[in-house]
Amino acid sequence: MDRLDLLPSPVLVTDAQGHIVTANSDLLALVGKDAEHWRGRYLDGFLPAPSRVFLQTHVWPLMLRHGYVKEIYLHLINGAGERVPVMVNARRGQWDGQECIVWVFFVALERSRFEAELVEARARAQRLAAELSQANAELQSVHQQLSQHAQSVESQNRELATLSLTDPLTRLGNRRALERAVEQWQMQSELGAPAALMMVDVDHFKRVNDRYGHDEGDRVLQELARQLQACKRSSDVVVRYGGEEFALWLPGTGPDGASAIAQRVHQLVREVRVDNKPVTVSIGVSCAQQTLHQGRDMVFLTRLLHQADLALYRAKTAGRNRTMWHDGPTGLP
Length: 333
Fold this sequence. Notes:
- The chain has helices spanning 25-31, 35-38, 49-66, 111-139, 142-164, 175-188, 205-212, 214-231, 255-269, 300-317, and strands at residues 11-15, 20-23, 68-77, 83-95, 98-107, 194-202, 237-242, 245-251, 273-274, 277-278, 281-289, 323-325, 330-331.
- It is α+β, with helices and mostly antiparallel strands.
- The strands form 3 sheets. Strands 6, 7, 8, 11, 12 and 13 form a 6-stranded mixed β-sheet that branches. A 5-stranded antiparallel β-sheet has the order 2-1-5-4-3. A two-stranded antiparallel ribbon has the order 9-10.
- Keywords: Coiled coil, Nucleotidyltransferase, Transferase.
């Protein structure tokens, strides 16, 4: 029996460039064909196109920097041509006297969780994309410029992180900033802690753009952003969710507190005027409770947004310039 067959997971050994050296029987049973068929081929022969791109843009740069990767989510193509979600750990080392990389695959049975983690991994890859061209060039002289390179990358990461969380027109946070704020609440809040999500949409905003032009529309959005900032507490987060739609994340806020903030929003946004007429907004609110102990659920925000959007739609269809609520609290399963 091959020593790799003793391991209770699919295992692959490649050389340092990703060419296949050997694989255990669990992996061959998963992807089909025998070891001789795969020997010498490139690792991405197992992968569909999106995972190949992710391998090149994210996995290999991490391997070059650290010598290992952990908890990377990819798809493999099995013997039947189907995509199989897997979690991958890999480490650089020695195999039969030559430098190699050992890849261990764990089939991800919880598909919904895997898909959510894949979305997060893709977002991380996008944040790193601007850095990769410079990082790849600097890797050629990494031994001589390691200290300088590390400082440069750290500075770039901070700048990219700031830019990736900011809406350029209003200087509010963007959707990614909302995701980060909700994730932080999930990880840090106590069981039973309340929170609320408020979706705010400018009434008849298309008329402003059509009648007065996009410059006036931009001014309205910027002034509205300032008024929404004035409505929030220090713990709240206000983001421009898209177009004329804003979101307020209100951690530690139950229905009564959210209602008071919604009333204040309606009052303050009326100070924004177009042709000397006050701007109004429609608001949809959904409430939540923390039911996980220091954990996170990647679909929680999606569900909360959907419920707030439904309430916002009801506010619009009921005549606008009002607040509507989702019918029930949203907890974390």
